Amino acid sequence: MTHLEPGMTAPDFTLPDQYGRPVSLADLRGRKVIVYFYPEALTSACQQQACDFRDRLPDLSQHGYAVLGISRDPLERLARAHEQDGLTFPLLSDEDLAVHRAWDTFGEKNSYGRIVQGVRRSTFVLDEQGIVTHAFYNTRAKGHLEMLGKRLGLSS
Q1: For residue range 116-132, what is the model confidence (pLDDT) as tens digits?
Q2: CA-based max dimension of the chain
Q3: 3-state DSSP helix/strand/coil percent for the chain, to nearest 5?
Q4: Which of 67, 69, 108, 114 is the most exposed place for a label (fewest CB within 10 A)?
């Protein structure tokens, strides 16, 4: 596992979306992409983050960004979250954690003062060639989209 940094090429992947359809990062070449990893669908913090992305998607799309959310949840849970929250971008399932490990978003983390193994909430911004322009590890759900918008120079 390598901590991804700006200037690095993002590891490619193909994962099933909430309906089982394959989504490949390589197919999004030519567009800027925001890939975010979150611990578990249908939990309050992850739901807040997904809804913040949903609400901000028109502005992100206008600036050429596609959004992909990735968790280790099974497809059924992702479909429920997608429907319940009215999401307009794909949620991808990485149950075997291969993509999480390639992007260094799974491993030791501090959870309420204890060191545990788990998903590190993280967000990556890629340019049209799949090069990382921003890498944010161990983010918080609350206020994340506001910070991201400022870093990308987008309107509020």
Answers
A1: 888 999 999 999 999 99
A2: 42
A3: 30, 30, 40
A4: 114
- Contacts of 42-49 with CB under 8 Å at 24 or more apart are 42/77, 42/80, 42/81, 42/84, 45/121, 45/140, 45/141, 45/142, 46/71, 46/81, 46/141, 47/81, 47/85, 48/141, 48/142, 49/121, 49/141, 49/144, 49/145
- pLDDT score, position 140: 86
Q: Active-site residue among 25, 33, 35, 46?
A: 46
Q: Which helix (H) or strand (E) holds 89?
A: none
Our answer to whether residue 46 is catalytic in this structure is yes
List 115's β-bridge partners, or say none.
110
Contact call for residues 124 and 135 (beta carbons, < 8 A): yes
The larger pLDDT score, comparing residue 154 to residue 79, is at 79
Q: Which two tokens stand for residue 156?
A: 């509020």
Using DSSP bridges, classify how beta strands 65-71 and 132-136 pair: parallel, antiparallel or unpaired.
Answer: unpaired
pLDDT digits (tens, 9 = 90+) for 47-85: 999 999 999 999 999 999 999 999 999 999 999 999 999
Torsion of CA 92, 93, 97, 101, to 10 degrees: 0
Structure tokens at 108: 């030791």
0.70 exceeded by pTM: yes
Query: Six-digit token pair at 22?
Result: 């394959």
